[in-house]
Amino acid sequence: MEETKQKKKGIRWLYLLLSIVLWAMVLAWMWVIFALSSETGFASSSRSDVMIRFLDQNFGLEVSVLFIRKAAHFFEYALLTSLAFFAFAATSRVSENNPLVEIPVSEMKSSFQTNAMLSIWITVLYAVLDEYHQIFVLGRKARITDVLIDILGGVFVLVFLRIIVALMLINKKRSECSDL
Known about the structure:
The chain is an all-alpha fold. It has helices at residues 2-8, 13-37, 41-59, 65-91, 108-134, 144-179. The protein has one domain.
């Protein structure tokens, strides 16, 4: 009886598989960011021009090169933060012995905050490294404002996710109250 109980407490294989896939996506997205940052200033400007023409021709939007470039920073790092957040969340649930597996509603905030903190640190560190890398790329410069925009993209995603979690908790409490 004791052995079967111990066998049940082990690895949750679906969470392990999900963790591996999500971490692979995090690394792949980091590679995409690195590859885009490795483009020369001319190639990067050409890519921005293509996007400006696309937005103008398909949506009638006239936007500046500066807006396109800063929006790209924002969304690149928003996606990195969200991928890292979900990767940490899945990883924390791999082991059934992990206390985060069965999260009481009162403790749900702490697991969210842990995953948010870890994912924003990845974003901050990679944003700084990315800007440092651009010092060595022809026609590119490192800008602290770009790092701040990258961090803002990450924070935006985390605030959005926090609102979603809060709404889910409110909805869960309402359904529990109506069941009584």
